[in-house]
Write a structure and sequence with these properties.
Keywords: Heme, Iron, Metal-binding, Monooxygenase, Oxidoreductase
Number of helices: 18
Organism: Saccharothrix longispora
CATH architecture: Orthogonal Bundle
Helix content: 40-55%
InterPro entries: Cyt_P450 (IPR001128), Cyt_P450_B (IPR002397), Cyt_P450_CS (IPR017972), Cyt_P450_sf (IPR036396)
CATH topology: Cytochrome p450
Structural class: alpha+beta
Number of domains: 1
Family: Belongs to the cytochrome P450 family.
Number of strands: 11
Order of helices and strands: EHEEHEHHHHEHHHHHHHHEEEEHHHEEH
Protein name: Cytochrome P450
Oligomer: single chain
Length: 414
């Protein structure tokens, strides 16, 4: 095998972990190819990822630090244009990033998870109530569509003040944005689609402000009286919607799948021997809902364990690889084990771009999982695990559907 030849990242999602193992074996930082023939550096080890994420010479601003984007070599219909064309808290750099994070951080105080928990519980109970009939009838249910998908989406939409009809439309756009098998035409449609949906929301909130994050962002002012620009406002609102829903959807999907395929570990949770907090951290480690997030860029040359990433080159953090790094977790790094002592992971990031909503995400995960298995303790998969179809992407880690039976008795009879 030619170890220096760039590997094309798998767009199907089928070989995510196998490819992550291959890339990690090649080195902590290796070049890979993503759609459009773009070459990027994949960071595959835990230690090097933590270093890169905390390095002030690593940025997420394409408009300032990616020469190919600045010089127009990345076309406007590039399949992944939505990931780099935003101007929000996740893509700014330096003083602009600090300004936006300061303004937005007011909406994500340390008390926010506690304040939001009653809303998460109400939405959870509503969704589980809707499933009662299917449980009684022994029907096969797509748990992703009926529970994992709407729970975080409905929660974040209510927090930002987005009406349900608009949330459903925006969710379809986000689903396409997460896929890496789209055409250039679809890539442009995605960009225009999510911007249009959020612009409509901002216009609504200007006319009818409420007690929600979108209204707060419109009204937010820095110490000097400056507000978010129009693009910052639109792009940041979308970032909150996407980050708060898409990753949590996949977390629920992966958590339920892992527990149902490891019934002995599920029993430890049901019996109270292991907490839901331990389950959450292990799922985040071994099945990070975010696989490889595009993109970061080298502000200056970055030397990494014998490899130098040249100034201006794009970078991918391979979360699917770093959570399973044997240098941290030993030979069992790829094994789901809620009893392991060290569940260290970077699934919420590290450094200046650490996820502002990490506390809320953990709260929603605990609220949803505990209620789901309390309501349906005999929950089982309705298909063999090998039949679960992955999302065709290298960005997210999850399944297209999660068929289950909510009643163990009905499942056994089938």
């Amino acid at each position: 095998m030619e170890t220096n030849r760039p590997v094309a990242l798998d767009n199907t999602g089928r070989y995510m972990h196998a490819q992550a193992d291959e890339l990690r074996a090649r080195g902590p930082a290796v070049q890979v190819e993503i759609p459009g023939g773009v070459l990027v550096w994949s960071i595959n080890s835990y230690a090097v990822s933590k270093k890169v994420l905390g390095d002030p010479n690593v940025t997420k601003s394409a408009r300032h630090h990616w020469p190919a984007f600045i010089e127009g070599k990345i076309p406007s219909d590039w399949e992944m244009i939505s990931w780099v064309a935003m101007d929000n808290v996740s893509t700014t750099y330096g003083k602009d990033h600090k300004r936006l994070r300061r303004l937005i951080g007011k909406a994500f105080s340390s008390r926010r998870p506690e304040d939001v928990q009653p809303l998460a519980k109400r939405i959870t109970d509503t969704l589980l109530d809707r499933l009662e009939g299917a449980a009684a009838a022994g029907e096969v249910v797509d748990l992703k569509a009926a529970f994992a998908y709407p729970l975080p989406g409905m929660l974040v939409a209510e927090l930002i003040g987005m009406p349900e009809e608009a949330r459903v439309a925006a969710a379809k756009v986000m689903d396409m944005m997460a896929r890496t098998d789209v055409t250039p035409e679809q890539g442009q449609e995605i960009l225009l689609g999510w911007r249009g949906a959020i612009e409509d929301l901002i216009a609504l909130k200007r006319a009818q402000p409420g007690e929600d994050i979108a209204s707060d962002l419109i009204a937010a002012r820095d110490d000097d009286g400056s507000a978010l620009s129009e693009q910052e406002l639109v792009d940041t609102t979308f970032a909150i919607l996407g980050a708060g829903s898409e990753t949590t959807i996949n977390f629920f999907d992966n958590a339920v799948t892992a527990l149902l395929t490891h019934p002995e570990q599920l029993e430890l949770v049901k019996s109270g021997q292991v907490s839901w907090d331990e389950v959450i951290e292990e799922v985040l480690r071994v099945e990070s809902p975010l696989a490889s997030l595009p993109l970061r860029y080298a502000v200056e040359d970055i030397p990494l364990d014998g490899v130098t990433i040249p100034k201006g080159d794009p970078i991918l953090i391979n979360y699917a690889a770093i959570g399973r790094d044997s240098a941290v977790h030993g030979d069992s790094a790829g094994t789901f084990d809620i009893t392991r002592r060290d569940k260290e992971h970077l699934s919420f990031g590290h450094g200046p771009h650490y996820c502002l909503g990490a506390g809320i995400a953990r709260m929603v995960g605990k609220t949803g999982l505990s209620a789901l298995f309390e309501r349906f303790p005999d929950l089982t998969l309705a298909v063999d695990p090998s039949e679960l179809e992955p999302i065709p992407t290298f960005i997210m880690n999850g399944h297209l559907a999660l068929p289950v039976r909510l009643s163990g008795a009905a499942s056994a009879a089938a």
